[in-house]
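pipeline/complex-builder :: batch 7 item 3
reading input block
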Amino acid sequence: MSRARADEEEYWHSSKFRAFTFDDEDDELSQLKESKRAVNSLRDIVDDDDDDLEKVSWSGEPVGRRNRLPSLPSLSDAFSDTGVKNYAPELRRPRAEYKDYSNDWSPRDTVRRMQRGKVCSLERFRSLQDKMVLLDEAVAGHDGNVITAVLIFLKRTLRREVLFRELEVRQVALCHLIHFLKETGEQKLLLDLLRFLDRTEEVALSQYREHLNIQDVEKKREFLKGCIGLPFSAEDISHIQDHYTLLERQIIIETNDRHLAMAGQSEIFRKYPRKASILNMPLVTTLFYSCFYHYTEAEGTFSSPTNLKKTFKIPDKQYVLTALAARAKLRAWEDVDALLTTKNWLGYTKKKAPIGFHRVVEILQRNNAPVQVLQEYVRLVEDVETRLNLATKYKCHDVVIDTYRDLKDRIQLMAYKCKVERGSAEEEKINSLLSNMQIRWKN
Amino acid sequence: MASTARRDAPEPPDFGILKRLARDQLIYLLEQLPGRKDLFIEPDLMSPLDRIANVSVLKQHEVDKLYRVENRPAPSTSDQLCFLVRPRVRTMRYIADIVNADKMSGRSRKYKIIFSPQKFYACEMVLEEEGVFGDVTCDEWSFYLLPLDEDIISMELPEFFRDYFLEGDHRWINSVARALQLLNSLYGPFSRVYGIGRCAKMSYELWRDLEEESENDGQGRKPEIGNIFLMDRDMDYVTALCSQVVYEGLVDDTFRIKCGSVDFGPEVTSSDKSIKVLLNAQDKIFSQIRNEHFSSVFGFLSQKSRNLQAQYDRRQGMDIKQMKNFVSQELKGLKQEHRLLSLHIGACESIMKKKTKQDFQEMIKVEHALLEGFDIRESTSFIEEHIDRQVSPIESLRLMCLLSITENGLIPKDYRSLKTQYLQSYGPEHLLTFHNLKRIGLLTEQAAGETLTAVESRVSKLVTDRAAGKITDAFNSLAKKSNFRAISKKLSLIPRVDGEYNLKMPPDMAYVFSGAYTPLSCKIVEQVLERRGWQGLEEVVRLLNGNEFAMADGAPEDGAGGDAQRVVVAVFLGGCTFSEIAALRFLGKERGCRFIFLTTAITSSARMMEAMAEAKA
């Protein structure tokens, strides 16, 4: 495929994880020292502690200093004596928690308890007003986990229109519900909600998004066809249309080319076997492919570059850039020449590059174009300094010599003499120029 | 902060305790499922786990086999399965599938889920719906803080950025508040708290709430950290979007530092294998170049190589005894230094090679032009060409975002044409990426016709409490208007330098961007610490959309309070880049104070852009 494309593909999509290695950089001794230091630094904290404080073990049960669980490492022990006890997991529900089911916590206390990870029954919030007070408290508490928990309860106990109506004026809670529905994949409810909110563009995008999960290309194409009628913005509709058309084309091209490649009749496929399928590739990659394998086809065929250019209104610049890269890769220098040649109305030909000749040179050079080819385009680089740089870099001696001559720079020309081979035609050319009395050197 | 006499910055507190706490708790949780068991680990948790425990520790606590949580059925034959996971819906479904498959085949096993750093109600709901609630036991591994280095602590929650800033989900605020509480209880009490941003404010409030009800008031303890500064990532996207040019930032941009370590591939190691290297203050070579501008790094490395050579050369002319001493005492150190030196030289070469290929020089020029606000047309065509040539999709996106933020949105014509070309070059499905970028405010279109301020003032009249919700996206995108140009002017973010900017002996924090731009986030921190609050910064605050706060709880007067008053925790909600870290380290050195970085994750432009893409379910 096109340059670096494969790399980028992987970069962009990669979700692979590296092999699983644990490496232990610390050696035992330094670990020991570190522990000792840690323990010592803790002593102050531990000793300062108010002895009246209730001691809590990992299990959340109050314990005295004496009946600690024997398996606990000393460090965490030290910590359970300080304020850090909040970080101990509540592994078993403390007995105190069971009273949640009977006791009436205020909405605020309910939210606070939930923020601390405690189980709270929400069933007694039955009136709409109670429910909304609870939701507003959750939002005011800033903990998204609790907001979502309340929303799960509301979703279960309210008719959706009622819930939607209430959320319309509660933006923070609304965001949480939308995110929750996205994560749990409740697409239907999500779309209903977005429609209720009149967010038509999001409705369309959210449906379009589903195409990412469709593996089968035929199904995907059908799905995209259906997307064309969705309420996208005027601008996006054309993108969706293009997406559909592109996949449709790719399916046709892929079927044909796979067949061609298998049959082994076509020289180009034999000489340059396809590395990957063209399905689901971007348009520019498809164009590159088409310029590579189907360059000479007539505009009538779906796989021809000109057809693609026309169908997708590919700008000239983009087209030339891509075609150039493809033809240079095949070392089809005549095609490169033709691509950059235009005829005016009098029939004179002229070289023209919408991308700038320095880019042309770069592309050709990357594909190891011979000096004769390269120098023709180096010569056309407009900016003198860039031209000299490129010509020197790629050893296009003729261009360097001519440029210095045009600049009437005798000193540079003389200096360049030592860069060309002894006894070569280039050296001769320099010598003849230097001895040419008709040139008015500037130095 | 002392700005008068230059003092040495205090040493950072010892954060090793945090690792130990996490490890001990994990061990305890594993022991709650006595006997042999297989452990399934969420891929995201592997590197953090790697930093606090190793396989042998797990084995000691009867972990038999290790599996990755992934979308494949698990071949485990153990009677006890333990899952170490992030609280995610999709992971719950994976676990539920395993449990349900066992039920179908009449197999009985014990299952335990350990959530890190906390459990979400939504996860329990999924377990309930799938009919496995009660079949599994759930625990929480309160592993909030992972010290990556002596001055960097990460929450390792890269998803924080997308969850909060794009989806508007507050689920991680509780985790942040608990992390602050933990830090405060171990190294505080913090006497001064500053912050800016909506999330910063909410986190602060929730943390206060937690502190109020905990019995531990920390009185009488000698604090090691006196100040804390909380900042939302959306206060400053520009800095995060710039190409990094300090060494550590470049290494991150080029090779991706993951959880404080990096995999140097064959192109760096000049052998056929990759080497995993821990990058931190313990690496004697790295610690000296990490904060340097890339241009100074070569000189340093070659000087080091010469010194090393000289030390090796001393062997000639040694007698047996001296040689014996040399081998037993110095050789190991020299070899180690040699190994590190050659790795970093290899890394530099590889960076150079990649950057030359990418027209890095030209790209930096464009970035600087965007930051200063000139040659906008030329920059736009540069970006266009970048897209047309199918150079990196991430880089193209990054440059477009930088253009958008610095210009307060793209003009509609440019927006349309760049978007169309982007979709043609990198794939039509990025339509979704563009939508996300618009929602988060990173890549927007200027409103046609009416000037923004006119709309804004009209809208603000409409906004009463009840009506606030009714106003849709249009207002949201206005609210996120970046005002970069005005802020940059107010804070003089573009240094005026006569002659060449001295990168070797930099005069200010702007060196992290070659002297072209002072990172906004760091400048805010500097200004607020200097003023001990927001006085005099009212205009900047207004341009940043407010939500600033400053609290001083019994803060000692100047001079009193000891070293702790010169230690500042800089909290970045939504991620912090290595360039920002380098800039604040520089500031710390200048002002004799020590910055500790607490971030939800280390971030970079690439990570931010990737977070905006839509992936398959």
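note: Residues 320-357 of chain B form the longest helix (38 residues).
queue -> next item
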